[in-house]
């Protein structure tokens, strides 16, 4: 029904559409400032900072899901894979595409010598929480996310 493969530059317009679909689902569409050009540079330039898998529907070759990941370093655990996002278009959710993408990212973490992987899930996203619980994932409490935007960093350093 589905095929998972490494993403290509030509996939990026559809990838960005799925990212925007996720932002709408998470009630924050105005937060997406990424562009195809940025993703091309950041994922396929001389120093790529993220990896990408796409999930295609076999009968149409339409990209219906994506997984974006990168590496981080834990002073306690060593090299870790960070799963930034798995997105499956709404009409295809619950049909196994998310599992295929998640399994592929897990396999990639082992291929790349990672000591494990991590990700975030919104506390109100029950379908995603239940999905990860099926894997026996440990869902941490007690950590807060911290952010500074480029504009804020510039202002602070000026």
TrEMBL record:
<dbReference type="InterPro" id="IPR016181">
    <property type="entry name" value="Acyl_CoA_acyltransferase"/>
</dbReference>
<protein>
    <submittedName>
        <fullName>GNAT family N-acetyltransferase</fullName>
    </submittedName>
</protein>
<feature type="domain" description="N-acetyltransferase">
    <location>
        <begin position="2"/>
        <end position="158"/>
    </location>
</feature>
<dbReference type="Pfam" id="PF00583">
    <property type="entry name" value="Acetyltransf_1"/>
</dbReference>
<keyword id="KW-0012">Acyltransferase</keyword>
<dbReference type="InterPro" id="IPR000182">
    <property type="entry name" value="GNAT_dom"/>
</dbReference>
<keyword id="KW-0808">Transferase</keyword>
<dbReference type="InterPro" id="IPR051016">
    <property type="entry name" value="Diverse_Substrate_AcTransf"/>
</dbReference>
């Amino acid at each position: 029904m589905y095929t998972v493969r490494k993403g290509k530059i030509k996939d990026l317009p559809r990838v960005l559409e799925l990212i925007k679909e996720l932002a709408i689902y998470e009630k924050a569409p105005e937060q997406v400032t990424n562009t195809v050009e940025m993703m091309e540079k950041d994922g396929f330039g001389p120093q790529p900072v993220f990896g990408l898998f796409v999930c295609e529907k076999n009968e149409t070759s339409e990209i219906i899901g994506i997984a974006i990941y990168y590496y981080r370093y834990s002073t306690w655990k060593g090299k870790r894979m960070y799963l930034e996002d798995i997105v499956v278009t709404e009409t295809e959710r619950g049909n196994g595409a998310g599992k295929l993408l998640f399994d592929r990212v897990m396999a990639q973490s082992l291929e790349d010598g990672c000591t494990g992987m991590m990700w975030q899930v919104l506390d109100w996203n029950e379908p995603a929480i239940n999905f990860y619980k099926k894997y026996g994932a440990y869902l941490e409490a007690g950590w807060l996310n911290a952010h500074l935007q480029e504009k804020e960093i510039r202002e602070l350093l000026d």
